[in-house]
Amino acid sequence: MSLLSPSRKRSSSSSQVDRVEAFARTIPTDEPESDGTLEWDSTTIVVVRVFAGDAVGLGYTYTHDAAVRLIEDKLAPAVRGVDVETDLSHAWHELGHLLRNVGRPGMGFMALSAVDIALWDLRARLLGQPLVDVLGGVRDEAAVYGSGGFTSYSLERIAEQLGGWVAQGIPRVKMKVGRSPDDDPARVDAARVAIGDTTELYVDANGAFDRDEAVHWANRYANDWGVTWFEEPVSSADADGLRHVREHSPPQLQVAAGEYAYVPADFLNLLRANAVDCLQIDVTRCGGYTGFLNAAGLAEQFGLQISAHCAPQASTHICCAVPHFRHIEYFHDHVRVERELFDGVLEPQGGALRPDRSRAGHGLELKA
Ligand SMILES: [Mg+2]
């Protein structure tokens, strides 16, 4: 069955997808990791490849390997036949429609994200252009912040990791808080000492606090350690709670969330509630590049900047194409996984990732 209605059905062309492949790979972390609300010791990446003859587009998401079956059974039959030169927006809506009764927010949109990233990559490769130019670039490089500082880390490891990013020229770093709040002052102290006074320090509670606790810690973080970014101080399901924390925090501390927004309505709910100072968007969850542009457009209407959550290698080109962009999360786990799986991985220079314009697409290739 083709996606396309009979009137739009084209004869076979060289830009039409003729094959879809998906697989999962689970990669152990380099040591046990935890944040305010979760513990883990591995990361699973689901990779999608779409083919048009000899040309191949690559996409991925981070989720359970059950997404492979979802892609193969539900999405791939409709992706075959999509013409990436002309049909990407149509395909995005149709694939979303196919997921209606499976569940769009959550794994459904993660699977769709991986497919959409692969389709855009294939389109750019067939055009022989870097993805940033196909999307319409507005900058040559995208700022990053180092992200890790897990609650499972020793003080020495926190200092080594965060200080390492600063030594690499990254002037912004983020650490996890909220698992055992009484331990956090010593942890944040160690971080501040390691990174010096001029580095921006961010914290992420992953929704560990209730509203009153979050307000208490927001004021302490801002006043005692100069923290300027408090991510998910309460659950991002509590949009009114996020706004409450914003309204009761020092003005120099910004509240951020959005990593668990999947469909456009999820982003709109956060924006309408005035829940965030900066909207986070995860390209591997929000519906890929098509969904990212959609969510970024919504943020722009609310006068907000956006920040890319995780998956730094998939995020760089699109973040060079969004005007009101702030930074990409250079997340320790995903940096490791993407280095292990892909050739063409970008390394930060001067605190930013710069698309390699000598490569077509997003520039990533699956290692042999
Ligand atoms: Mg987070």
Structural class: alpha/beta
Task: Tell me the name of the CATH homologous superfamily of the largest domain.
Answer: Enolase-like C-terminal domain
Q: What is the number of beta strands?
A: 14
Q: What helical percentage do the residues reach? A: 25-40%
Number of helices: 12
**Secondary-structure element order, N to C:** EEEHHHHEHEHEHEHEHEHEHEHEEE
* Dominant shape: globular
Small-molecule components bound: magnesium ion
Q: What is the annotated CATH architecture of the largest domain?
A: Alpha-Beta Barrel
Would you give an account of this structure?
This protein is α/β, with parallel strands linked by helices and 368 residues long. It folds into two domains: 6-128, Enolase-like, N-terminal domain (Enolase-like, domain 1); 133-366, TIM Barrel, CATH 3.20.20.120. It contains twelve helices and 14 strands. The protein has helices at residues 66-79, 88-98, 104-127, 131-135, 155-167, 184-195, 211-225, 239-247, 264-272, 288-301, 312-319, 332-341, and strands at residues 19-34, 39-52, 55-62, 142-148, 172-176, 200-204, 227-231, 254-257, 278-281, 305-308, 325-331, 342-343, 352-353, 365-366. The protein has an eight-stranded parallel beta barrel, surrounded by eight helices. Strands 1-2-3 form a three-stranded antiparallel beta sheet. A two-stranded antiparallel sheet has the order 12-14. Helix 5 links the parallel strand 4 and strand 5. Helix 1 (66-79) packs across helix 3 and helix 5 (155-167) packs parallel to helix 6 (184-195). The two termini are 32 Å apart. 54% of the residues are buried. The structure holds magnesium ion. The site of magnesium ion has 5 residues, from loops. Magnesium ion is lined by residues 204, 206, 231-232, 259.
